[in-house]
Specification:
- The chain is an alpha+beta fold.
- 36% of the residues lie in helices and 25% in strands.
- The chain has helices at residues 14-23, 44-59, 83-98, 165-171, 173-192, and strands spanning 5-10, 27-32, 63-72, 79-80, 105-115, 123-133, 151-153.
- The strands form 2 sheets. It has a 5-stranded antiparallel sheet.
- The chain is globular and about 55 Å long.
């Protein structure tokens, strides 16, 4: 029996861990229940790199962190790295109101960063999912993933919330970023062996 390579994923979100496990079937994904302070920047790359470095400095082990942002076509860099803050302050109804009469195109961008001892900076992998924002909230709002109730992926007439796990994994921005990480880890292991 071949042992699977372990990936330590620092997040308090169990749904993200479940998605990472599906996207990384050749790896043992272990959750590290940690929430590290995130710098506030409009630059997603800067935010995820700092989060990875700070998490590594805390745990002193090879670690993976992830951050997802939603971007509205109608507004530059918004809500972007402030997606969670915007949901907490405006709520979904407030955000829907901001889009009344505006272009409803949107995209999710997930960034996954890996860092270990000896790396000058983390390596970052990104995945995108294009779509549009619905006119209303569809389904039950899950606190850790509220935007799934208003985001309709391109090529679908259902919100992300309404898709099956298999459908989500096929189009998911997060799954795409984790698959890229998995390919990089496998290639790196091949080169070392």
């Amino acid at each position: 029996m071949v042992l699977k390579m372990k990936v330590l994923f620092a997040t308090s979100n169990h749904n993200k861990v479940a998605q990472a496990k599906i996207a990384l079937p050749d790896f043992e994904v272990e959750q590290l229940d940690a929430d590290v302070f995130e710098i506030k920047s409009l630059n997603l790359q800067e935010t995820i790199e700092r989060k990875a470095i700070d998490t590594f400095n805390l745990v002193k082990k090879p670690v993976v962190v992830e951050d997802t942002c939603l971007f509205f076509e109608a507004y530059e860099n918004f809500p972007g790295t402030y997606s969670k803050f915007c949901y907490q302050t405006l709520g979904l109804n407030g955000l829907l109101k901001l889009l009344e009469g505006k272009d409803r195109k949107a995209k999710f961008v997930s960034s996954v960063a890996f860092i270990e001892a000896g790396m000058e900076k983390p390596i970052v992998f990104s995945g995108e999912m294009n779509g549009r924002i619905s006119e209303k909230i569809v389904g039950k709002i899950v606190y850790k993933m509220p935007y799934a109730t208003i985001f309709i992926p391109s090529g679908s007439d259902k919100t992300f919330n309404e898709l099956t796990s298999e459908e989500k994994n096929a189009v998911s921005h997060r799954a795409s970023a984790f698959r890229k990480l998995g390919e990089w880890l496998k290639e790196r292991k091949r080169k070392k062996d």
